[in-house]
Amino acid sequence: MKRVILILTLFLLFFNPVFAAGSIKKDITVPADDGFSIKATFEYPKVKGKKEFSTVILLHSLGYSSQWWENLPEELIASGYAVVKIDLRGHGKSVYNARLERTSWKNMTNNAYAKYPDDVVNVIEYIKKENSKKSFFNNWAIIGADVGGSTAVLAAEKLSFKPKTIVILSPVVNTKGLFIPVKLANLDKVDILAISGTDDNSSTEAAEYLKKFAQATFAVYTSESKSTGMIMLKNDTSLAKIIVSWIKEYL
Asked: Exposed, middle or buried, 116 (CB in 10 Å: 0-12/13-18/19+)?
């Protein structure tokens, strides 16, 4: 029995070094410009001597948190990517303002939602600064669901170093005041994959409208799931692999 276990261990070490080596995981807190605490989890494969990683940012749906991504983060890390899961303000662990008062997305105004793109930019800049001996944003992508997808477009437009691609689950033209068509038109070298659930006519129509503003590839995919946003990953078990396959074309 010991000999069998030893052979199996050597097999895993040889054929899957990323899995065998494990990963490095960091919980980070980034103060927003107004003092609001933005929480995120930063994880990447532990590979000896590796100093450059392609990175994927995950921005969740309205009313959820970074804990609802199902197996997508694990699929990405197993494929060798660094993954940043951000709790958008008012969600998950990102619920405390500068006075340590608890703030929920349910009670936020559009002025608060307007800060989402800057919050994401601040997290990215923080990771770059704190990990200066490694490179994480030479090649990177964003995956966002509904309000997270809108935030992805607006944050990407603000940055000088653009993502290679953006994946949007249940795209929305204008949610919580985050209007994206004009900013989308500025991303002239960023390909988009828009995913809508079966029977989700609202997102399907939004994708067709946004496609008119895209200056690069704007691909549309319909999931077998009848749900919306990141919940599609739970109801359509093939979706995570489809998204990872898309990411692999760019990173």
From this structure: buried
Per 3-state DSSP, what percentage of the chain is helix, strand, and coil (rounded to 5)? 40, 25, 35
Q: Which domain holds residue 115?
A: 23-248
Structural domain contains residue 2: no
Tokens of 151: 């935030």
Q: 228 CB contacts (<8 Å, ≥6 apart)?
A: 61, 146, 169, 170, 197, 200, 203
Alpha helices in the chain (DSSP H): 2-15, 17-21, 72-78, 110-113, 116-130, 147-158, 181-185, 201-211, 232-235, 239-248
Query: Could you tell me the two tokens for 113?
Result: 């939602």
Q: How many domains, in total, are found in the chain? A: 1
What pLDDT score does 21 carry?
A: 60
Tens-digit pLDDT profile for residues 56-79: 999 999 999 999 999 999 999 999
CATH of the domain at 82: 3.40.50.1820
Residue 243: count of CB within 10 angstroms of its CB: 22
Q: What percent of the chain has pLDDT over 90?
A: 90
pTM of the complete model: 0.91
Q: Could you tell me the CA-to-CA distances from 61 to 28, 91, 150, 177, 217 in Å, in that order?
A: 20, 10, 10, 15, 24
